[in-house]
Amino acid sequence: MKRLSLAAVSLIALMAAPALAQQTPTISENSVTAHIGFLAGEELQGRASATRDEAIAAAYVAAQFRLSGLTPVPGMDGYVQRAPVVKTTPSGAATLTLGGVTLNQGADFAIMRGGLNAASGAVTVAPSADPAALPAGSETLMVAPAEGPAVRALFGAAMRSGAKLVLLRRTEMLAQATSDGGSRDPVIRLADAAPSTGPVILVLSPEAYDRVAAAGGSIAYDPGASQVEQGFTSNAIGWLQGTDPTAGVLMISAHLDHIGLRSDGVVMHGANDDASGTVAVIELAEALAAMGPHERSILFVAYGSEEAGLLGSRYFVEHPPIPLEDIAANLEIEMIGDQDPQLPEGVMMMTGFTRSNFGAALKERGALVGPDPYPEQNFFERSDNYALALKGIVAHTVSGWATIPTYHTADDTIANLDIPFMTNAIQSLVAPLAAMADGGFTPEWSEGGRPAAR
Ligand SMILES: [Zn+2]
């Protein structure tokens, strides 16, 4: 067969594909692997919240946005929104004292939350671990939870009980949750937010717990010394200008930070949580930009400091680069690096699926999304979508496997990702999101689906 000249080949390709710009671009496993290799690789050390590693991750995402043809949001002078934070790093050991006896952090207890504040008061032992039956108005509340995930509900009830100090008897799950040394890691808050005044929650060894419960009386928690420094966290933000400024903006987001270098020297890479979602945002930006201008503008965001308490998204909604009422819907992508065996093959779960018509509309258009099989876990409120939902924006999170065993462990690495699943999941979102950006669909809350503003 005669070889055609290069020009002739190009011409034939053009004639065969007259609507080239409208075709759905292909997401390649190689591209996904390349991005995740940088974000979750050794060099970035797990992208810890409000660190230089996080800033480098944001700069990388910004560079990809630029490369894909996105611009800064009109009015911003670049692709990165910097949020000032205050970082407090404990430098001394915390202690608990009662009746002349001192209990030490590490040997006798671990800090679950609020460990920077001092707290003290008379001990009340809860008669049972039933969250609905916790005594109200006690100064120091002691509870012995049952083994298993029911501790989450108990935790919430303890937070609301009004106690200044909550002492939990250690269970297997609580031991795992506090195994990283708790308060040795820095506590980060937005500089324009007040320091937390919530209760101090400690997890006591069974021996220490039983001893305090038997002794009764008054107990005092001393957080020890700490160092305070100013810093910033970075949100990478890109803009794809639409043709109709009145059509409402579609927003696609993820969080780019993770836990980073733990105080015990272990690197937490967060390949799945949430380098995978960040890669999805990068890939979707490239694909949707390549499909040509859409009716709606599209905002792409990769937040910083999610792991420090959803700080990037909270800052974003308090300092939005565009009016929040212009955002028609937000899709947050979190942990799509592997699939939940409980879900139909290839399908992601969407949190709060029935709260709006957004998930059903994506699914109708071919997105591999379905309802969340764990409504009792309340994942809808536990991701960056929630800050926007509280402002009235139809906002949901899609995940491949929200209860994955590698969650917040040192095993959340690139080697443990399912790249074909992830690539396919991202691919399935391209055409449905493009269709939504091209109008003809208005995201709306279902009856009672919108969360009450706080
Ligand atoms: Zn996480």
Write up what this structure looks like:
The chain is α/β, with parallel strands linked by helices. The chain has 2 domains: 24-87 and 230-437, Zn peptidases (Aminopeptidase); 92-224, Glucose Oxidase, domain 1 (3-Layer(bba) Sandwich), CATH 3.50.30. It contains 11 helices and 19 strands. The chain has helices spanning 6-16, 29-39, 52-67, 151-160, 172-177, 206-215, 271-290, 311-318, 358-364, 385-389, 419-437, and strands spanning 80-90, 95-98, 101-104, 109-113, 119-125, 140-143, 165-169, 187-190, 200-204, 218-222, 226-240, 249-255, 260-261, 267-268, 298-303, 327-333, 348-350, 369-371, 394-399. A 9-stranded mixed sheet has the order 8-1-11-15-12-16-19-17-18, with helices on both faces. Strands 3-2-10-5-6-7-9-4 form an 8-stranded mixed sheet. The chain has a two-stranded antiparallel sheet with strand order 13-14. Helix 4 (151-160) links the parallel strand 6 (140-143) and strand 7. Helix 3 (52-67) packs parallel to helix 7, helix 7 packs across helix 11 (419-437) and helix 9 (358-364) crosses helix 11 (419-437). The chain is elongated and about 75 Å long. It starts with 5 loop residues before the first helix and ends in a 17-residue tail after the last helix. The chain binds zinc ion. Zinc ion (ZN) binds next to loops.
